[in-house]
Amino acid sequence: MAAAATITVPSRLTALQQDYALADTMALLRAMIQQEFAGRIAVVSSFGAESAVLLHLVAQIDPSTPVLFLNTGKLFGETLRYRDRLQDLLGLTDLRAIGPHPKDRDALDPEGSLWSKNPDACCNFRKTMPLSRAMEGFDAWITGRKRFQTDDRADMEPIELVGARYRINPLADWSQADLDRYMIEHHLPAHPLVRDGYLSIGCMSCTSRVKEGEDPRAGRWRGQDKTECGIHLDSFTDGGGI
Ligand code: SF4
Question: pTM, whole model, 2 decimals?
Answer without folding.
Answer: 0.86
